[in-house]
Write a structure and sequence with these properties.
The complex is a heterotetramer of chains A (528), B (209), C (399) and D (177). Chain B has 209 residues and is an all-alpha fold. Chain B is built from seven helices and no strands. Chain B has two domains: 164 residues, Four Helix Bundle (Hemerythrin (Met), subunit A); 40 residues. Chains in contact: A-B, A-C, B-C, C-D. At the C-D interface, α3, α10, α12, β6 and β7 of C face β3 and α3 of D.
């Protein structure tokens, strides 16, 4: 061991200066890039935002085309060889499908047009895509990218929203346009901070705890579908898989609280355990409503069942689902320890709860995990109740567009695509943030009362009701069909009212923003 | 280390307990394979899967040993998480996705949390040593030896023929059907047992009022 | 490191004796809440003995901010001592100045000119609003509601701007001095103040909608930390804490000073839930009542300020020759109604220009001593609720 | 009720125990013998004519010239029969107790007025007056290991505390020291 360390040290002695020289060269380059990029972003923020969204869409679309094409090639080749493939392209597929570049070239020739002209190069470029490991690496890259970007920008957005709610501006400086690089800058700061481990803490557990928190929340993204084909692993039990890994996250919090050797931390951990264990039950109950309605645990199939447009979203399918959705949202707030259920880190009671002794990157791991988990539960809510990646328009209308490449793009933007899923998630995230900055925190006994006495019976009742509803819907009775249809449209109408009310209120607030704060604020306060 | 000998016996005891745990898991695995419709027909395993399996198995063994040899209850719980989690991964490898997820929810996310929670609530100091009277150890030893014997019998009697083929997608419905047909009585008994536990817990909690 | 930590010792074992008797008790813990804690409003330290989430006992320890204010009083002349009073209850500097100035005036028999008196009343009431705004905001913060805090501070900033315009300081004013106020009002100050009052009155309903009548807030604060009338008086509680227990007692009415008898205003007191838009579940003497009294007092203060500004007489604002006054060989004890209660100053003179004894009776000091009684057998989350509703300023507790 | 009347009542009730009635000046009070203070305090609080239920303040005063320490108790009556009624008058009174500076001891009234608890601790902390009968008489503002009573006129400010050096700038401003 000592020799190894010595070798490492000698290696550093030799290569260290070179690395440092490279870094020294890179540093002004990075600074110059930032200085050049900052003003551009500041001036063209709107355009950059739009083009980023478009670029992401195009990237996703291209990626889907690529993979889809190779899949079709495999199927076609197999069909020409007389082999029937079933089970398709999941993780139990063999390491290779034995496709040769020339077979791909044949397929490309069949497509014709640009693809045929490019087939000489494209056949070799597409050839590695058939390997599961290559696909997995691409998928993992996307997954980790998402897992990094989502929390970073959710934090930024939370700060912006909180600022606006509190009649201030939120981050404005770092990077120029509305502090767009505030969160990355914070991340760099946290990376550079001292990794402090208190005396008397259980050091191994203290170091381990953040990983118990961040890995499960990253794992949840494995099974969370962003679109019909945009899922890293389409599990048949994705729903309970996500519930399970999010449940493991609690262990990280508990270990953090325990290992810190701080009584406030222990309190935070105990509250977390108490809250999580109780709220997982109503959460699970509420999750069962769509499962009972659609008869599957597969998230993709649950979304497919809601492809009929606004009025066919599961939240409007029955009054029970409508109330169940609200119960689910409340329980999901509790399971993400978001206000008003942020008891584990209640800063006015427990200093910072389980986070009290943490600093630097380990501290930020907890925040990454929290915001990622927020996104996951919002995604679950969108998938289970709000039609997932389908737009309010029925997907069947989009089918008429055909299957050309531009038609796929239009369908993705207008009818069903990851954009819609992300938009719904962002809206639900906004509601979470909005609630956090509006409501006081509730007390632990009230938390448990709300769970055991209110949410649990409510969700049980809703589950029972949904079961009966679904059972009744299987009958051929025409009156009942009418009742379900009327319910659907009435609830959908209520939802529509909300859907229009939000932007209407927001627009009102935007146009009257100066009058609402009052004349005196405009004159007297800085920044107005 | 004041009482090394004592620690050794208790560690051995825990080893036996862990053996019982493995028995439990293997029985679950047997149930899983039945439920997920795994047959003994030959199927390609894949090098990656094999490597993953051996890695996970190693993790399971090491963490079980960790449960036995660590002196601190919370660290034991962390090791236990390693064991339970790796068993969950094994379920996933067996395409028993449902069981894997349930393993995560029930054991890793539920039981283990409650265990740590209990330790936190009742401990006097942050680091609690696990210790029990000798008579209890004796009884526990006898029970664990019996369990170990059972495990050995299962190990020797089981037919380890062939590799297994995976039939994905069928597990949830298959489990549901088995639970309310073939295993209806044990299912209901377990439900009643849990009910009794709940009533008992409520009774204990309300006693001091 | 691990070996030393995990070394087993007899007292680290689980206490099996009690568990064998079927007593599944949880472990009692001693926790230091403070002196550095977000919700002890300064450097208060409360030692909590807890059983799980229940607080069995809470013993406050004070003195972390002791700055020998009384000893300094025996070393400086009264007009030099006024800045020290600012630093006692630093959220209500004007009222502190007023109390000390009144004590010196009573001791030396100084007559304050009417303009000075009226300005004093206006500033004292403005400061009362500012202080209550901080109290409201931080109480919301204690309950986990962040947003009302910023709204309250937004309005408080405006009051501080008004103060700054009049005396140049935003926190430690020393504006009210023995004999009157040390400067006249600047031009158009009255108009600015009236504009602020118009604006502020509409904002109180914002706080009510956001915080006061918030269901969670009411649930968190009602029926918590109930202080009976007898306890309140016995422990020497004054101000909103006393009125929160349902007694209509305010020195501005019962022992008027600076001409308060000439103003028309009400003394709001706590009422049980269900009456006068007070939410159900509230009982007299709980945290919500104390909070609510402060909200109502802000409206009354606005009334008083309007009257004061309306009748602002012309003339001198300070009695002449206020420096180097010789204090008679006598003592005086004067109390005024501070935002937090009755602030008393006992000043003893001995024919020199420097007092021989200055004693400040801080309302926070007296109000805080009920913590030990009020925080018995409550939940952990109630401790910030109770301490916050008592609304202490540690600068005044420790002086 | 004026302080004069209160003094009358006290004198008729306790006679010798009321050493003096200091009614001139801005702070009228009765001077009470320290050893009878417990009874007088009980009477002040409980007598139906007086009912001084609010102990406003306890002020310890160092009378270095007379070699005495004085304690001034300010009390007030808050009517509780009809709490919602607005009262426009106050009944206030003060009691002054002077004790030997070398062995100052005054019976505690913390059991009568709980408010006296902290006030008496403060007087003990700052002036070193002992209050026999107090439930928990220890320093309140200074640290538990502080030496001396800071508000006494002959107090010497320590120039060092646990290795922390201290300055006495006030020596420059205060001619007495």
């Amino acid at each position: 061991m000592r020799i190894l360390l010595w070798k490492l040290w000698m290696g550093y002695r030799i290569f260290g200066p070179i690395i440092e020289l490279l870094m020294a060269m890179f540093r002004p380059f990075a600074v110059a890039m930032y200085r050049m990029g900052g003003p551009i972003v500041a001036q063209m923020a709107g355009m950059i935002l739009i083009s980023a969204v478009v670029a992401v869409c195009v990237g996703v679309w291209a990626h889907a085309m690529l993979f889809g094409f190779v899949d079709e090639s495999i199927l076609a080749t197999a069909a020409s060889a007389g082999v029937e493939l079933t089970g398709a392209f999941s993780y139990v597929s063999p390491a290779t499908w034995g496709l040769t570049p020339s077979q791909i070239a044949v397929q490309l020739q069949q497509v014709g047009g640009v693809a045929a002209n490019m087939s000489g190069v494209a056949q070799y470029l597409l050839w590695p895509v058939q390997f599961g490991i290559v696909r997995d690496l691409v998928g993992l890259g996307a997954l980790m990218g998402l897992f990094n970007i989502i929390p970073v920008y959710t934090i930024w957005w939370e700060r912006k929203v909180a600022g606006r709610i509190q009649s201030r501006l939120g981050p404005m400086r770092v990077g120029g346009w509305h502090g767009w690089s505030q969160s990355p800058a914070d991340g760099i700061k946290l990376l550079l901070k001292e990794d402090l481990i208190p005396d008397g803490a259980d050091a191994p557990l203290f170091r381990l705890a953040p990983y118990f928190n961040i890995i499960p929340s990253a794992l949840a993204f494995v099974a969370l579908p962003f679109g019909a084909t945009y899922v890293f692993r389409e599990l048949d039990v994705a729903l309970i898989f996500i519930l399970g890994v999010l449940g493991v996250e609690v262990l990280g919090v508990m270990l953090a609280g325990w290992a810190s050797n701080n009584k406030w931390s222990v309190y935070g951990a105990m509250r977390e355990a108490c809250q999580m264990v109780s709220y997982e039950i109503p959460l699970g109950m509420a999750l069962l409503l769509p499962v009972v309605t659609t008869g599957t645990l597969n998230l993709t199939k649950i979304v497919d069942a809601q492809s009929g447009g606004w009025f066919h979203w599961l939240v409007f399918s029955s009054p029970f689902a409508f109330i169940g959705f609200i119960a689910f949202f409340v329980a999901s707030l509790a399971s993400c320890k978001r206000a008003p259920f942020d008891l584990p880190e209640a800063e006015s009671e427990l200093v910072a709860g389980f986070l009290t002794e943490y600093s630097g990157i380990r501290w930020s791991f907890f925040f990454f995990a929290e915001y990622a988990a927020m996104f996951v539960v919002c995604g679950l809510a969108a998938i289970l109740f709000l039609g997932g990646w389908h737009s309010p328009l029925p997907a069947s209308w989009g089918a008429a567009l055909g299957d050309a490449w531009y038609a796929r793009g239009v369908k993705g933007l207008l009818f069903s695509g990851p954009v819609w899923f992300v938009a719904k998630c962002v809206f639900l995230l906004y509601v979470q943030i909005w609630i956090r900055w509006t409501l006081p925190r509730i007390r632990i006994d009230q938390v448990l009362y709300a769970c055991v006495q209110v949410l649990l019976p409510l969700t049980m009742l809703m589950l029972l009701g949904t079961t009966v509803w679904v059972w009744a819907s299987t009958s051929e009775c025409e009156t009942w069909a009418m009742v379900t249809a009327i319910t659907r449209y009435v609830l959908g109408g209520i939802g529509l009212m909300f859907a229009f009310a939000f932007p209407a209120i927001a627009a009102y607030g935007f146009y009257h923003r100066r009058a609402m704060v009052g004349n005196l604020v405009q004159d007297a306060m800085p920044g107005s | 280390m004041t009482n090394t000998k004592h620690n050794l016996t208790s560690c051995l005891l825990r080893l036996v307990v862990a053996g019982g745990g493995v028995l439990l898991f293997s029985s679950q695995a047997a149930f899983a394979s039945e439920a997920s419709g795994v047959t003994n027909a030959a199927a390609p395993g894949g090098l990656l899967e094999a490597a993953l399996f051996y890695f996970v198995a190693l993790v399971a063994v090491v963490s079980s040993l960790g449960v036995c040899f660590s002196k601190d209850i919370v660290r034991m719980a962390v090791w236990l998480f390693g064991a339970l989690g790796s068993v969950a991964v094994m379920y996933f490898l067996l395409a028993a996705n449902f069981l894997g997820a349930i393993q995560l929810i029930v054991y890793a996310g539920g039981t283990l949390i409650l265990l740590v929670f209990g330790v936190m609530l009742t401990s006097k100091s942050p680091w609690v040593k696990f210790e029990c009277p000798k008579i209890e150890m004796l009884f526990a030893g006898i029970i664990c030896a019996a369990l170990l014997g059972c495990l050995c019998i299962v190990l020797t009697d089981a037919t380890w023929a062939g590799t297994m083929q995976v039939v994905p997608g069928a597990s949830v419905e298959a489990i549901g059907k088995i639970l309310i047909t073939k295993y209806l009585v044990p299912f209901e008994v377990a439900g009643v047992l849990l009910m009794i536990v709940m009533v008992g817990a409520a009774h204990l909690a309300r006693q001091d009022d | 490191m691990a070996d030393t930590v995990f070394e087993a010792s007899p007292d680290t074992m689980i206490d099996y004796d009690s568990s064998q008797q079927g007593d599944l008790r949880t472990e009692e813990m001693l926790i230091n809440m403070g002196p550095q804690h977000p919700s002890t409003h300064g450097v208060l330290r409360v030692v909590l003995r807890t059983d799980g989430e229940m607080v069995l006992e809470a013993i406050p320890h004070i003195g972390y901010l002791h700055r020998c204010a009384e000893k300094i009083g025996e070393a400086v002349q009264p007009y030099q001592y006024v800045p020290y009073t600012d630093r006692m209850d630093y959220l209500a500097g004007m009222n502190n100045n007023q109390a000390f100035s009144l004590a010196i005036e009573r001791l030396c028999g100084i007559e304050v000119p009417p303009r000075g008196e009226t300005i004093r009343v206006a500033f004292a009431e403005l400061n009362r609003i500012a202080s209550h705004l901080v109290s409201l905001g931080t109480y919301g913060l204690d309950m986990g509601a962040f947003t009302p805090f910023l709204y309250c501070f937004r309005e408080r900033e405006m009051i501080l701007d008004l103060f700054e315009a009049a005396c140049g300081a935003r926190l430690t004013y020393s504006y009210i001095t023995p004999g009157g106020v040390h400067d006249d009002l600047p031009a158009s100050w009255v108009e600015r103040c009236l504009e602020f009052l118009d604006y502020f009155e509409t904002k109180i309903s914002d706080y009510n909608n956001l915080l006061s009548f918030n269901h969670i807030f009411v649930k968190r604060t009602s029926r918590v930390g109930v202080i009976s009338i007898d306890d309140a008086i016995g422990y020497g509680l004054t101000g909103p804490c006393l009125r929160g227990s349902g007694i209509r007692w305010d020195l501005r009415k019962t022992a008027p000073y600076d001409g308060y008898e000439n103003y028309d205003f009400d003394i709001p007191i706590a009422k049980p839930g269900g009456t006068d838009e007070i939410p159900e579940g509230v009982i007299v003497g709980d945290c919500w009542s104390r909070y609510w009294v402060r909200v109502l007092e802000m409206t009354e203060s606005v009334k008083i300020i309007r009257q004061a500004l309306g009748r602002l007489p012309n003339g001198d604002f300070i009695a002449p020759k206020m420096k180097n006054i010789k204090l008679p060989e006598d003592e005086v004890y004067v109390e005024v109604e501070n935002p937090r209660g009755q602030l008393g100053f006992l000043v003893a003179g001995d024919k020199s220009a420097i007092p021989s004894r200055v004693k400040a009776r801080g309302p926070s000091f007296c109000n805080l001593c009920i913590t030990e009684k009020a925080c018995k057998n409550v939940m952990l989350a109630d401790v910030p609720a109770i301490i916050g509703s008592i609304d202490v300023v540690m600068g005044e507790v420790d002086r | 009720m004026t302080p004069e009347e209160v003094c009358q009542i006290l004198k008729s009730e306790f006679g010798e125990a009321i050493e003096d009635a200091l009614l001139e000046g801005a702070h009228p009070c009765a001077k009470v013998a320290a050893h009878r203070w417990g009874e007088v305090a009980t009477f002040l609080r409980d007598d139906s004519r007086l009912r001084f239920n609010l102990l406003r303040s306890i002020t310890a005063i160092d009378m270095l010239a007379d070699d005495k320490l004085a304690c001034v108790y300010d009390v007030m009556h808050i009517p509780t029969d009809a709490p919602a009624e607005l009262v426009t008058t106050t009944i206030i009174f003060a009691v002054r107790i002077e004790v030997d500076r070398n062995a100052p001891s005054i019976p505690s009234v913390a059991s009568l007025w709980p408010a006296a608890d902290w006030h008496e601790r403060e007087a003990f902390d700052m002036m070193g007056i002992d209050f026999p009968g107090h439930p928990d008489l220890r320093r309140i503002l200074c640290c538990d290991d502080w030496v001396g009573y800071p508000l006494r006129k002959d107090y010497d400010f320590p120039l060092e505390y646990h290795g922390i050096p201290a300055t006495t700038e006030f020596e420059l401003t205060n001619p007495r020291h």
